[in-house]
Amino acid sequence: MEAAQVGAGAQAGAGTAWEAGGAPPEPSVARRVRWAFEDTLVITKRNLIIWFRVPAYIFFTVVQPVMFTLLFRYVFGGAIHVPVPGGYVDYLIPGVIGQTAGFASFSTAIGLARELQRGGVDRIKSMPSARVAFLAGRLVADTLRLLVTVLVMVGVGYAVGFRFSGGAVGAVGMVLLATLLGLSVCSVSALIGLAVKDEEAVQAFGLIWVFPLTFVSSAFVPIASMPSWLQGFARHQPFTVVINALRILALGDKVQAAVGQTLGSALWQSLAWALGALIVFVPLATRAYKRA
Q1: How far is residue 242 from each of residues 36, 74, 113, 156, measured CA to CA in Å?
Q2: 3-state DSSP call for residue 218?
Q3: Cα torsion angle, 203, 149, 66, 167, sign
Q4: Where are the domains of the chain?
Q5: What is the structure's pLDDT at 25?
């Protein structure tokens, strides 16, 4: 009863202040940040619940990289020679994990385009929620999904003969860097999904730009085996740089000569590419969401 009276008194006092000043007081920056954080958690939970209710979605997300692993390990692996002490399987798994991080971003673009077509974005916008929460919640949920997928691929790699030789710190670093790569690519896919808006068009466009970057890289074969006119692009594009860093983290300094980079060089370039993509594409995706 006393609390109700206090609340009523506060409202009455606030009402008098608003009438005198002509407008309600603006919430503090700390309160806005807290509201945005809470709204982001709600949207993240919403996306995770959808995936838990449709486990086939997560299953098929993992099936594709598993198929690539088995195909290259047992069909093409015997014909591909790499200068890595552990053989082709140790060369392959960090590449597949890097490719998985890129391909997993498809669902971000497709999911956002589907939300636009089905009115989900309009419903969220009609609620008193932070504008940044919808996109941030989606990216947080996708990051968690990416982390699970990368861990599953590590398990699959161990089943086909892959072994970490760079120590526990390197193993953890590889998983975290692969997840960061996936998050940065998801930010690009978020912009594509919100800008293109059509689910089928998004699927086609996603294949156009992700496939060349992942296959014309050091993911599956050494760059030296490619035509000379293609090697320059393959060597300096972001997926190659990140995959080189993943290999060195997973296998140790002994593969630095094989990938043609030191750990320090590969790491700082990887972080520059990933953080640069986030800095550029998250604001663009947020702007596209506001316009959607």
Answers
A1: 32, 25, 28, 21
A2: coil
A3: positive
A4: 27-291
A5: 66
